[in-house]
Amino acid sequence: MSDTRTATDITGLSAADLAGKIAARELSSVEVTRAHLDRIAEIDGELGAFLHVGSDEALAAAQAADDAIAAGDAPSALAGVPIALKDVFTTVDAPTTCGSKILEGWVSPYDATVTAKLRAAGIPILGKTNMDEFAMGSSTENSAYQVTRNPWDTTRIPGGSGGGSAAALASYQAPLAIGTDTGGSIRQPASVTATVGVKPTYGTVSRYGLVACASSLDQGGPCGRTVLDTALLHEVIAGHDPRDSTSIDVAIPDVVGAARAGAAGDLTGVRIGVVKQLQGEGYQAGVLESFQSACKQLTDLGATIVEVDCPHFSYALGAYYLILPSEVSSNLARFDAMRYGLRVGDDGTHSADEVMALTRDAGFGPEVKRRIMIGTYALSSGYYDAFYGQAQKVRTLIAGDFAKAYQDVDVLISPTTPTTPFKLGEKVDDPLSMYLFDLCTLPVNLAGTAAMSVPSGLASDDGLPVGLQIMAPALADDRLYRIGAAYEAARGPIG
């Protein structure tokens, strides 16, 4: 190994390049992991991407990966490449807080399936990343612990709820990251940080050990700086899990092969639909300009682009903010101060009900309380059919819009977000404005289909990152990678 190599030489490499060099023993996993830990120590005080850094554990895992590679027994294509893990996946060797005071310091007795798959693949876990409390938010400002800043402009949000993972990638603190996507929490942070994020088909990545926000919407997924890196990680974490009752027992498409094929840049014969409802009024001019430029590049690659009408997408926001809070109301009932986590008022002078109420009041933040109250109301007697029941009918109509569209096109595209990242604090007191930031991403979660955000450049009006959203049918995740990689190659470097 060269004595002149610097940490920047290492952290600036893609995960695929790092994996190749580690496999060829040109770099060691320990060297790569230490370089990223040094990068975290150097800059994360300003950015706040990590809630917990496990240096000793990461270096031990890196050494184990090096030993396996030296013995000719590399456990995966990404063996030795370190990763940042969103703090909503359980880990036996680090706290899992979900960005909430109600779980401060809690260490799980078991690993999430995604965590276990990363370990089995020889991927060192650098630490746990910051997030909106229980994945409820669009800016990572709802974390009970700290605000995460966007590396492109530290006065702005890094997206949410997985802003910590996206910021860690964009600032070269990690070459790979794991996020979760309930209404856009992987794709939206990816868009505003110029990184790549994928929401896989619902049920293809295990939710066992993923602390639930909304069980019918939550989906873990891969995050990276390139389409190929993200595909390599997708391959590691996907697959059937009998411990997850919603896990689909089907073969996962060859996403890595699709990414490599797409990089050749030929989209001849591919039909792409532009969603009429996900552009126009309310969208920033620079975002629309970037989107139109992406459409032209896709056409130049040989794709045919047509406009597609998805009329029920207009109701996605309303349906989502009835379904999600209803499931939140049910899922967060487990935090009762009796079994684990925070306990307030347990001094012998309060009843169990009073301890429960005091604990929830102290442990849950404003946004979580807001959604619990909305969900409890929507599920209450006399209102269930009018609110939750109607929202589920709209969900079915949105799934029907997707199904009809995919009869005529291979994928759908739109901007990932209506605007570039807004300033920290700008929308904290305006929940509806905050919710509208996820306008483009919500329909995919309601339908359970697959989607990717890939960087489409910097907006001409403010110079901040813009994302292109690519959507594909359920179990056709490989289409995302083929088209995303082709577009990435045609687009070229950003910034």
TrEMBL record:
Allows the formation of correctly charged Gln-tRNA(Gln) through the transamidation of misacylated Glu-tRNA(Gln) in organisms which lack glutaminyl-tRNA synthetase. The reaction takes place in the presence of glutamine and ATP through an activated gamma-phospho-Glu-tRNA(Gln). Its EC number is 6.3.5.7. Belongs to the amidase family. GatA subfamily. PROSITE patterns: AMIDASES (PS00571). The active site is at 86 (charge relay system), 161 (charge relay system), 185 (acyl-ester intermediate). GO terms for molecular function: ATP binding; glutaminyl-tRNA synthase (glutamine-hydrolyzing) activity; transferase activity. Residues 31-480 form the Amidase domain. One of its GO terms (biological process) is translation. GO terms for cellular component: glutamyl-tRNA(Gln) amidotransferase complex. It catalyses: L-glutamyl-tRNA(Gln) + L-glutamine + ATP + H2O = L-glutaminyl-tRNA(Gln) + L-glutamate + ADP + phosphate + H(+). The keyword DNA-binding does not apply. Heterotrimer of A, B and C subunits. This is Glutamyl-tRNA(Gln) amidotransferase subunit A. It is an enzyme of class 6 (ligase). It comes from Gordonia neofelifaecis NRRL B-59395. Keywords: ATP-binding, Ligase, Nucleotide-binding, Protein biosynthesis, Transferase.
